[in-house]
Write a structure and sequence with these properties.
Number of helices: 4
Number of strands: 0
Organism: Anoxybacillus andreesenii
Keywords: Membrane, Transmembrane, Transmembrane helix
Largest sheet: none
Structural class: mainly alpha
Strand content: under 5%
Protein name: C-type cytochrome biogenesis protein CcmI
Distance between the termini: 108 Å
């Protein structure tokens, strides 16, 4: 009976050692660095979440007021810059749409004139 417990415990110990040591020998180092490079792009939701957490930390007295104000200003400037970029992209797409509409109207008028001259 002791022999069965000895075999079962040795299998369990070897399994635990395998799960502890195996991450050191897998080739996932490159994947981790690739995942970290994507963190440079932020979304507005992520910035708002960071400001919210920053405010909670300040209210819980985890950070000083000077750190809170400086970090909050940095996040607000970052969000404002992203919003400006979004507005300029929208304006460019709106002007493109407007110019497309104008071109279609001009083409329609030209077709009408051609049909009238052809009569």
């Amino acid at each position: 009976m002791d022999f069965i417990f000895l075999i079962a415990s040795s299998i369990m110990i070897l399994t635990c050692l395998y799960f502890i040591i195996s991450p050191f020998f897998t080739g996932k180092e490159g994947k981790l660095t690739e995942a970290n490079t994507g963190e440079d792009t932020f979304t507005l939701e992520a910035i708002y979440g960071a400001v919210n957490e920053l405010e909670m930390d300040y209210l819980m007295k985890k950070i000083s007021e000077a750190d809170y104000t400086s970090l909050k200003e940095q996040y607000q400037l970052l969000a404002a810059g992203m919003m400006k970029q979004g507005q300029t992209k929208k304006k460019q797409s709106n002007t493109k749409r407007g110019s497309d509409k104008v071109e279609l109207e001009i083409l329609a008028e030209l077709q009408k004139l051609r049909k009238q001259k052809g009569r």
